[in-house]
Design goal:
9% strand, alpha+beta
Length: 207
Amino acid sequence: MEELKVLSEQAWEWFQNKPPNQWSKAYFSEKAKCDMLLNNVCESFNSNILAARNKAIITMLEWIREYFVMRLVKNRDKAEANWKGKLCPRIAKILERNSEQIVDCIPIKSNNFHYQVRCFHGGQYTIDLNHWRCSCRAWQLTGIPCTHAICVILGGQLEPEDFVHDYYTVAMYKESYKFSIYGINYDTLWGSFYSFLHCLLTLDQRG
């Protein structure tokens, strides 16, 4: 922060009232398994509903409901038809990319679970295989083994994909998309509000 103050005192003052866990990876929670500072989820959703945002409220909500109906089916069918491995494809690629960099790492074993990893670029980190931790924190933040961890995992003749969080497995993806949103009738078949209200009052009296 002192270095930031030297570069821009205005920026330094802006950060003073901001909780560090909202802008610094050093303070990020390890529960979410996400190290991103961006709000991409909301931005992606907003970009997908541009066609509906200017419509009347009921029409807009119907458009969004149908969008989710089709999205759930599309993602569910995609996983069922094409994903045969243990990990989701994007996560498998990240793991592969991390694995390609282990040539820069030298592991030093303390015991079966604890290691020190020295890197040619000058970094040095400690690994705890038992608790899936690396002192660089990338493993804890993302749930995906970092290069230092993979160096140790492969050195022990283990499989890196077995050390990826369950969030990223194909089985968990399918579990997330297994439910469906059912269709509804057109509004001419909905019946009157008063008949709906009568049903609610009847149910309430029975309870």
